[in-house]
Amino acid sequence: MHLSKLEAMRTPQIYFRQDVLCETLGGNTCPLLTITAMPESKSSDHICQFRNRPLIFLSARVHPGETNASWVMKGTLEFLMGSSPLAVNLREAYIFKIVPMLNPDGVINGNHRCSLSGEDLNRQWQNPNPELHPTIYHTKGLLQYLAYIQRAPLVFCDYHGHSRKKNVFMYGCSVKETVWQSDISATSSDLHEDLGYR
Questions:
Q1: 95: left (phi over 0), alpha (psi -120 to 50) or beta
Q2: Does the pLDDT at position 16 exceed 90?
Q3: Average pLDDT, stretch 83-101?
């Protein structure tokens, strides 16, 4: 229902596209949204500029019980489709790729942290199974494809909720952990990182 509301918010200046990223274990679709500004004209310069905008990748609701993540995603989507000068500037500067709900089966079935396979999908990023964890498998595949074609997102933000923390907070990625997980030949003593990401 909310996706049709977003479609109704589209103006000729807004590029809004809704694709199906994949089908879930339960047979539900997992949408992939693209939001940006339409090119100024059909000239090759404007089309090239349109296609080469940096990507921002957003996702939410990998844990079905974190309903506040959906509320924040709803606000993000409505803002990006809105007419405020900031939203217009963001659309003109970036292409937003958005998976608004990574665990639709868990949400539909009232689970708290698990998918229909009984697993926490947020713990499956390292080696997702295409049949058991299709939304993670295809999201990771899309991110890997974007990196392969030299279009890796400038920002990747996954919206969550928390059972005890209040207000808004962020966690970032550890450079050392990222290098260690990717088998790049570097010792931990070679890397210096700012612990502010925590």
A1: beta
A2: yes
A3: 97
| Cα 53 to Cα 11, 40, 84, 87, 95, distances in angstroms | 20, 13, 20, 15, 6
> Which residue intervals of the chain are DSSP H helices?
2-9, 44-51, 67-80, 85-93, 104-108, 134-148, 175-181
pLDDT confidence of residue 31? 97
| pTM of the full structure | 0.86
CA distances from 103 to 4, 13, 28, 166, 197 (A): 20, 31, 10, 23, 26
Using one digit for the tens of pLDDT, what is the confidence trace for 124-152? 999 999 999 999 999 999 999 999 999 99
Give the number of other Cβ atoms within 10 Å of residue 191's Cβ. 14
Cβ neighbours of residue 140 under 8 Å, at least 6 residues apart?
Answer: 125, 128
CB atoms within 10 A of CB 17: 11
Contact 176, 191 (CB under 8 A): yes
